[in-house]
Amino acid sequence: MRWFFILCFCGITNSLAALLDKDDASLSLNIESPNPPSEGMDSSKDLPGLLHLLHLRAHNEQPVVHQGSKKIQLCETCHAASLNRYNHYLPLLRGQNLEYLFAKIYSFKTDERSKHPFPPYLRSLSNQDIMDISLFYSNQKSGLNKNWVLSELKNTDQAINDKETGLETCQTCHGSDGKGSQLIPKISGQNKNYLSYRIREIASQSSSIHIDSVAAVKCSISKPGIRESRQMASQLALVLDDGSVKRGERIYLQNCANCHDQGLKGAPKLSDTLKWQQRVRQGWDALVESTVQGKAKMPYRGGNWFLSQNQLTDAIHFMISKIVTNDFTAEF
């Protein structure tokens, strides 16, 4: 009997020692789900806890960002910054809201309705990987971080009527500046072609990749046609690029200033803020098209056939920057 009690005591002691010797990480909260969600399971139940852990990790920003930079190689084959100028059908990830990025990638991984082109890769990602990738992209810069031109114009003397822009419903959730919050994504400065088809998908609720559990609210916008969605997207894409503004100044001085400084040949003077606000509200597409094709007495490509569409777009960036800031004191 005595030996029996001795053996029991030794067993309990060894168990306690083994528990105390465990690595601290194994005693902390496990960020990986014990069982991967199967088809039909509601994986959104895990999301609040994972977002809480994501916020805790965000406090240790620099090391985490470095870790994420090692895990984005496949993401960058489509979403690299160098490709954004040529491919406007894929969303900008750089600068997107952290919580939205994590929730969206997580939903791609766990929801069987997802039609992401690389499902095996997504399913191979751990929750830790998704956190690292989300933290990396949310700390980068893109058009999503720039001020929305229409929001800037609303702060001038001539306020914009949201109903005229067709974006009143979008601003209800995404904010007057289009920057969203947490699970609601930034949309101002987003790629316009991506926005155009996403607006139609969300309005019709027919998208196989629109997961309701990602956002705290459901989108309820009236279903627009292709033309209307393109105009809305073109308006949302109105953000100023510093490089384009700088390049556009020289192009404006050499090709546009003669008419737009003095209002010659019926050209609206650049200092006529009210007239330009009406034009700017039409979005990038309308502005670029009228510049390329010519309008009223303005000839094709502003009279200089050698200007590319990108150069004309740079000139428009410069002109809008002057309109937004009301800076007409300098001699052009």
Q: What's the layout of helices and strands?
A:
Layout: H1 2-20, H2 24-27, H3 47-58, H4 61-69, H5 73-79, H6 98-110, H7 119-124, H8 127-138, H9 149-153, H10 162-165, H11 168-174, H12 192-204, H13 226-236, H14 242-255, H15 257-260, H16 273-280, H17 284-293, H18 309-325
Helix pairs in contact: 4-8, 6-8, 12-13, 14-18, 17-18
Question: Would you kindly provide a written description of the structure presented here, covering whatever features stand out?
Answer:
The chain is mainly α and 332 residues long. It folds into 3 domains: 47-141, Orthogonal Bundle (Cytochrome Bc1 Complex, Chain D, domain 2); 145-236, Orthogonal Bundle (Cytochrome Bc1 Complex, Chain D, domain 2), CATH 1.10.760; 242-325, Cytochrome Bc1 Complex, Chain D, domain 2, CATH 1.10.760. The chain has 18 helices and no strands. Helix 14 packs across helix 18 (309-325) and helix 17 crosses helix 18 (309-325). The longest helix has 19 residues, at 2-20. The radius of gyration is 26 Å and the shape is elongated.
